[in-house]
From TrEMBL:
<dbReference type="InterPro" id="IPR058353">
    <property type="entry name" value="DUF8040"/>
</dbReference>
<feature type="domain" description="DUF8040">
    <location>
        <begin position="1"/>
        <end position="70"/>
    </location>
</feature>
<dbReference type="Pfam" id="PF26138">
    <property type="entry name" value="DUF8040"/>
</dbReference>
<protein>
    <recommendedName>
        <fullName>DUF8040 domain-containing protein</fullName>
    </recommendedName>
</protein>
<dbReference type="InterPro" id="IPR045249">
    <property type="entry name" value="HARBI1-like"/>
</dbReference>
């Protein structure tokens, strides 16, 4: 992530979403801890070593940042698509029967997912991943 993007996100979370600095941990450090946790997927022991903080401080940083992201930030910046199908899909008989109940964009996005073993075959995409 570029520095200017990180700082804009940090300012947004501080001004509009309630992310606050504490006595020993700044809001920027909380956001950096959360992003490191979310992007790399490492455990709290790795974060404790990386940021030189206790397990409780790391946990509080992650939870406070997550609370800001799933609360006010989410409602302000993320909007679900409408239920209306685009006219290009409704008018085309080769698309509409298949995409009639789909919601959202069809843009060849692939997301890795974890599903139950018995349902795995239904969720395998063209790239061979479960998603």
């Amino acid at each position: 992530m570029a520095k200017h993007v990180f700082f804009r996100l940090s300012i947004e979370l501080q001004t509009c979403c309630g992310l606050r600095s504490t006595k020993f941990v700044t809001a920027d450090k909380k956001l950096a801890t959360f992003l490191h946790f979310a992007c790399i997927g490492c455990g709290t022991r790795v974060l404790q070593e990386r940021f030189q903080r206790s397990a409780e401080t790391i946990q509080n940083s992650i939870y406070s940042t997550l609370a800001c992201l799933v609360g006010p930030f989410y409602t302000k910046h993320l909007h679900l698509p409408s239920n209306d199908s685009p006219p290009e899909i409704k008018k085309e008989p080769k698309f509409y029967p298949y995409f009639r109940n789909c919601r959202g964009a069809i843009d060849v996005s692939h997301f890795h997912a974890w599903v139950l073993l018995e349902a795995m075959a239904c969720y395998r995409n063209l790239k061979g991943f479960i998603g």
